[in-house]
Amino acid sequence: MKLFKFRFAIATLLPLVPAALAAIKSSEDSSAINISNDRLSFSVAKSSGSVSKLSLDGQNLLGTGRGPYLDCHCVDSGFWTPGNGATYKLFKGTDGAGQEYAGAMMSHDYQNTGKVLEQYWFLRNGETGMHVFARASYNNSRVPSGGDLGEMRQLFRPTSTLWTHLSSSDEMYGPIPDTSGAPTVQDASWYVGGKKDHPYVKQVSDYFTKYMFSEEWRNQIAHGMYGDGSKSNDGSAFGAWLVMNTKDTYFGGPTHSDLTVDGIVYNYLVSNHHGNGVPEMTNGFDRTFGPQYYYFNKGAKGTTLQQLRSDAAKTVTTNWTPFYDSIAQHVPNLLPSSRRGIFQGTVSLPKGATRAVAVLALSGADFQDNNKDSRAYQYWSEIESTGSVTIRSVKAGTYRLTIYADGIFGEYTQDGVDIKAGQTHAATVTWASETAGTELWRIGTPDKSCGEFRHGNAKSTSKTLGMREYREYWAVHDFPNDFPNGIKYKIGTSDLTKDFNYVHWSVFGGKANYIRKDPYYTNVNNWTIAFDVTPQQIAGKTNATLTIQLAGVKTSAGNNDHADKAWNDLPYTVVVNGKQLPTWTIPSQHSSSCAVRSAATCYTTGHKFEFNAGFLREGGNEMILSLPAKATAPEDAVLPESVYLQYDALRLEVA
Ligand SMILES: *[C@@H]1O[C@H](CO)[C@@H](O)[C@H](O)[C@H]1NC(C)=O
Ligand SMILES: *[C@@H]1O[C@H](CO)[C@@H](O)[C@H](O)[C@H]1NC(C)=O
Ligand SMILES: *[C@@H]1O[C@H](CO)[C@@H](O)[C@H](O)[C@H]1NC(C)=O
Ligand SMILES: *[C@@H]1O[C@H](CO)[C@@H](O)[C@H](O)[C@H]1NC(C)=O
After folding, report:
1. Where is average pLDDT lowest: 59-68, 343-352, 500-509, 560-569?
2. Burial letters for 624-654: b for 16+ Cβ neighbours within 10 Å, e otherwise?
3. Residues contacting ligand 1 via CB (< 6 Å)
4. Matching InterPro entries, A to Z (predicted)?
5. Quick check: 197 pLDDT over 50?
6. Are strands 605-612 and 543-554 parallel, antiparallel or unpaired?
7. Distance from the alpha carbon of residue 67 to the mean position of ligand 1, in angstroms
8. Would the pLDDT of 10 be above 70?
9. From the CA of 109, how far away is ligand 2's center (Å)?
10. Is residue 20 over pLDDT 60?
11. Is 161 helix (H, G, I), strand (E, B) or coil?
12. Domain 337-430: top CATH class
């Protein structure tokens, strides 16, 4: 799928939304900017910076709620919602495809510190959605650092009972839970199972955490809410979706994951959730995020969530190029197509590679760290089975090309890939997979995820909708109960879906564990891997290499890059047949709050333990993988205090 280009196809006529022909109407006074076409109408309130009224075919979509609107965690006091005291502008025009449009802009300088947030909403004729952009800038030479842009997001936040279901992806959906009066089990997580007859409890889980509905950006297209018609004016079903039609102004590359919907439909532009990096607002910082598309649709009574979802997803292929080129004059930093080029690659992949992807991101850096440069843009595209890959609409500039694939350890990188405006950059790449000799064994599939292990991607059987187990509130996967003797994994006979847990804990239970309230230590932090070696396998071998790739690791730094606490940097040790290898100290910057935030993949990292092959012996061998025992650090929020890690894959090679 290539979602990151403005397609040059004829705009598809959507089955549920006939194209409208009536003109755009717009008006402005001291309290509001109103914009409408013949189906969708909205009002931006100048007192709050929010869309305060929104209707589709006369149906109020917000109730007394609001949004889309913008907020950030970027000022000394924490969160800031700009708007009250902001300046506003109304834009009108006709785009390159001859469609009329109108747009509203809000710009607010935080206490005249030079920290400016801007929000843009555009409505185009014939469409029932808003094209949104958000800009953050900082201009203050007296205070060179404005601090981190810790979080920035757009929110569609209705109060209306119109909405009955949440959906973050094709496979993840369910009725909206009722958390009123429910006990908090963890930060932003509740036990809702007390209401046994509630549809959410019957279909999804006894617990609800907003992180259950988080998704990885790689293939994300649309997420949002559905109203089944039980509460609409005329029985029609409704949908409210955030469509990611471009992803180049987000950070963190295709592995970035974040919240999508929890009763609010989010467009998370920046956050540190799941260990994501955030940019620092230094003097001169100026970045515009978007476009993304808040899309609203409607179907006759009985139209399903899946039908409205798939209609929303189809809009991603709409050709908005003439429109975005036309509005670039109103949106600072929005690059028209004339300033973009094409990457065309032919990739020879290693044998066994599946689901290969090519990424263009900040040159000289891991794409997970592209937040370090506030001007960094990012692109990716799936590589076809022929090895061909095309990435369109790439901002002219110099990039690192990264290629990775399921089934292959390591990745291919090449810096200095130069994309020129209006040109096609052709590249031929041969990716030879990394090797340190002959492979003796591997555990798991390198795919940046712990999904193949116990409680990973397997679907829960406790409720009818069967969500993937890693999304569940983690405490239900009770480690002492599942592994009373700890992990003893025998290569060749053990089953990784049963005998290898998705999380390697130091401690299980205690704070934020609603089920096991006392910490449990026995046989938790040390895992044993047993394997047999034949004389032929080690004959003449001198060097052994144990590669460990992690899908995530939580040091005491959690989602931050640093913590002034024990286990900020986390020592991880391996003992081979009684001989301890040099410790791997996992740095705090690689930490993420992952499994406890319902994720099987977060900030990924890894290490190679190189050791004397003489440590291996003919016959039975044993390797102990250890986190320090009882390694906890205090958490201010209701969160588990144990450090832990999540394996992606491991392998042992000899040369
Ligand atoms: C905007 O729309 C509201 C109703 O939604 C109306 O009360 C208000 O007068 C309108 N303002 C302008 C400037 O048209
Ligand atoms: C930054 O602030 C200075 C001083 O107030 C001003 O002259 C300059 O135009 C500002 N730059 C931007 C990009 O707003
Ligand atoms: C874990 O393994 C390490 C290394 O073999 C050992 O020193 C330690 O005593 C073990 N800890 C526990 C709690 O079993
Ligand atoms: C073993 O490792 C040493 C030190 O890194 C290296 O010099 C040597 O070439 C390696 N030998 C083999 C067979 O890989």
Report:
1. 560-569
2. ebbbbeebbbebeeebbbbbbbbbbbbbbbb
3. 27-29, 32, 34, 43, 53
4. Carb-bd-like_fold, Gal_mutarotase_sf_dom, Galactose-bd-like_sf, GH-type_carb-bd, Polysacch_Lyase_4, RG-lyase_II, RG-lyase_III
5. yes
6. antiparallel
7. 17
8. no
9. 12
10. no
11. coil
12. mainly beta
Can you give the residue ranges of every domain in the chain? 25-160+269-291+313-327, 337-430, 438-654
Q: Which ligand is nearest to the CA of 436?
A: 4
Q: Residue 396: CB within 6 Å of ligand 4?
A: no
More confident residue, 164 or 6: 164
What is the number of alpha carbons within 13 Å of residue 52 lying toward its C-beta? 12
- Regarding the beta carbon of 111 and ligand 4, being less than 6 Å apart is answered no
- How, if at all, do strands 184-186 and 189-191 pair? antiparallel
> How many angstroms does the Cα of residue 34 sit away from the middle of ligand 1?
6
581 lines ligand 3 (CB under 6 A): no
For the chain, the first-to-last Cα distance in angstroms comes to: 39
Determine what percent of the chain is predicted with pLDDT higher than 70: 97
Q: Spell out the SS3 assignment of 47-84.
A: CCCEEEEEEECCEECCCCCEEEEEEEEEECCEEECCCC
pLDDT computed for residue 21 by the predictor: 53
Distance 288 CA to ligand 3 centre (A): 51
Q: How far apart are CA 188 and CA 259, in angstroms?
A: 12
Closest ligand to 541 CA? 4
Give me ligand 1 centre to Cα 91, in Å.
17
By CB neighbour count within 10 A (0-12 exposed, 13-18 middle, 19+ buried), where does 493 fall? exposed
Atom of ligand 3 nearest to the CA of 522: 13
Distance of CA 135 to the CA centre of its chain: 20
The fold of 438-654 is Jelly Rolls (2.60.120)
Size of the chain in residues: 655
Element (H, E) at 152: strand 151-157
Compute φ and ψ for 149, nearest 5 degrees: -85, 85
Helices and strands (H and E) in the chain: how many: 6, 43
**Fold equal for 337-430 and 438-654:** no
Q: Is 624 in the pocket of ligand 3 (CB under 6 A)?
A: yes
Tens digit of each residue's pLDDT (9 = 90 or more) over 276-312: 999 999 999 999 999 999 999 999 999 999 999 999 9
Instruction: For residue 28, give the ligand 1 atom closest to its CA.
Output: 13
pLDDT band at 22 (very low <50, low <70, confident <90, very high): low
State yes or no: pLDDT of 417 exceeds 60: yes
Whether the CB of 575 sits within 6 Å of ligand 3: yes
Mean residue pLDDT of the chain comes to 96
Residue 18 has pLDDT above 70, yes or no: no
Indicate the top mutation candidate among 542, 608, 609, 615 to test ligand 4's pocket, ranked by most ligand atoms within 8 A of CB.
Answer: 542
